[in-house]
Amino acid sequence: KAGVTQTPRYLIKTRGQQVTLSCSPISGHRSVSWYQQTPGQGLQFLFEYFSETQRNKGNFPGRFSGRQFSNSRSEMNVSTLELGDSALYLCASSTGTPGGKLFFGSGTQLSVL
Amino acid sequence: GIQVEQSPPDLILQEGANSTLRCNFSDSVNNLQWFHQNPWGQLINLFYIPSGTKQNGRLSATTVATERYSLLYISSSQTTDSGVYFCAVGAYSGGGADGLTFGKGTHLIIQP
């Protein structure tokens, strides 16, 4: 079974731009969660999608948004990038049912200049 | 929100040593997972263990939910065990799984 695939692996953007990150979950998994990892704040939950609906959301500004498609693939968008958005963005896949382990992709390293 | 504290923050051991990593959490949870982040940034799920004890090879974990802590044991350490170990907790409700709250991790270095 293929693992969680995130693209691109690296991104460099400038302040004010927007960016879209992609995540393909493990086949059969219906839940996709997104996390931001920074040296200062550690790993923080952004949001979770299940069957194309946002089911849970963390404490991030509205510039961070996402969506999920019918094939469970998910995209995350960050608009009006700020220097502080530089981070490793990790996508996690799970069955979405209680007791489901999270399986993470390799992440997208975003640098905002 | 739930607070998660991991100890020790850093640990340096020789190959072959055993270690115990601790995770304390501030509220009741029904979702607790341990992860290993390797030097390349990949997060690997080690255990889903909201209560009880599990073993997987040289690794085992115990969660005492009533006392709000979990322990990860690594025996006969190998250099490939190096990396950061995270404990993450959360809760399931009628609306599905809350996002996991991660601790700051234990940075483990295994020297040959």
Briefly summarize what is shown:
The complex is a heterodimer of chains A (113) and B (112). Chain A is built from no helices and eleven strands. With 113 residues, chain A is mainly beta.
Index terms:
heterodimer, A: 113 residues, mainly beta, 4-stranded antiparallel beta sheet, 0% helix, globular, B: 112 residues, 13 strands
Radius of gyration of chain B: 14 Å
Low-confidence stretches of chain A: none
What is the beta-strand fraction of chain A? over 45%
Number of helices of chain B: 0
- Quick one: how many beta strands of chain B? 13
Beta-strand portion of chain B reads: over 45%
Structural write-up:
The complex is a heterodimer of chains A (113) and B (112). Chain A is built from no helices and eleven strands. Chain A has 113 residues and is mainly β. In chain A, strands 2, 4, 5, 6, 9, 10 and 11 form a seven-stranded mixed β-sheet that branches. Chain A is globular. With 112 residues, chain B is an all-beta fold. Chain B has no helices and 13 strands. In chain B, strands 2, 4, 5, 9, 12 and 13 form a six-stranded mixed β-sheet that branches. Chain B has a five-stranded antiparallel β-sheet with strand order 1-3-8-7-6, with no helix packed on it. In chain B, strand 7 and strand 8 form a beta hairpin. The mean pLDDT of chain B is 93. The interface between A and B is medium-sized, with 28 and 25 residues.
Q: How are the secondary structure elements laid out?
A:
The complex is a heterodimer of chains A (113) and B (112).
Chain A: E1 5-7, E2 10-13, E3 19-24, E4 31-38, E5 42-50, E6 53-57, E7 64-68, E8 74-78, E9 87-94, E10 103-104, E11 108-112
Parallel strand pairs in A: 2-11
Antiparallel strand pairs in A: 1-3, 3-8, 4-5, 4-9, 5-6, 7-8, 9-10, 9-11
Chain B: E1 4-7, E2 10-14, E3 19-25, E4 31-37, E5 43-48, E6 52-56, E7 59-64, E8 69-74, E9 83-90, E10 92-93, E11 96-97, E12 101-102, E13 106-111
